[in-house]
Amino acid sequence: MFLIGCSLATGLQHVQFCLNHFASSLSVGPPQGNNWLEEQTRGSLNITCPSWMDWFHGGLQFHTEHHLFPRLPRRQLRKISPFVVELCKKHNVKYNTISFWKANALTIRTLQCAAMLARDLTNPVPKNLVWEAVSTHG
Q: What does the buried/exposed string (b/e) look like for 35-54 if buried means 16 or more CB atoms within 10 Å of the residue's CB?
């Protein structure tokens, strides 16, 4: 029973990690430019949901805020979100946020694309994601 309970609890977090990371754009190679805000927001994706769902997402539906303020308690991420949106507007940085269902569709599309690229072992640099994963940059 303990194993089943643990699997169910961590399964929710696993879905959230996949949505936040696999549905957002991929940075390959060393960082571009010197803009820390842009670097933190480019690979981050927020999931829109009502506040009563915060527990299910573990606060990570505010992935951008989590990357900007990693030590901030999760219960505070919703409160600072409007300030981060304004900051991004002020500095002309894209603030990525989509629905839970669209994030799932993007994740599936990204995983399909990665699988197709991984099949091509004859083209190791820089398009093959397996090669990029093995020889991580940055």
A: eebbbbbbbbbbbeeeeeeb
Q: Do residues 18 and 106 touch, judged by C-beta distance below 8 A? A: no
State mean pLDDT over 72-95: 91
**The pair of three-digit structure tokens given for residue 94, joined into one six-digit string:** 């894209």
The set of residues, in sequence order, having a beta carbon less than 8 Å from that of 114 and lying 6+ positions away, is 129
Could you tell me the CA-to-CA distances from 17 to 35, 119, 136 in Å, in that order?
A: 25, 24, 20
Model pTM score:
0.68
Distances (CA, A) of 117 to 41, 102, 122, 123: 25, 23, 10, 9
- Apex 92 CA angle, 20 and 87, nearest 5: 70
Cβ–Cβ < 8 Å for 91, 7: no
Q: Residue 65: pLDDT band by 50, 70, 90 thresholds?
A: very high
* Nearest alpha-carbon partner for 44 in 26, 69, 28: 26
Give the pLDDT score at 125: 52
In whole angstroms, what is the distance from residue 18 CA to residue 127 CA?
Answer: 21
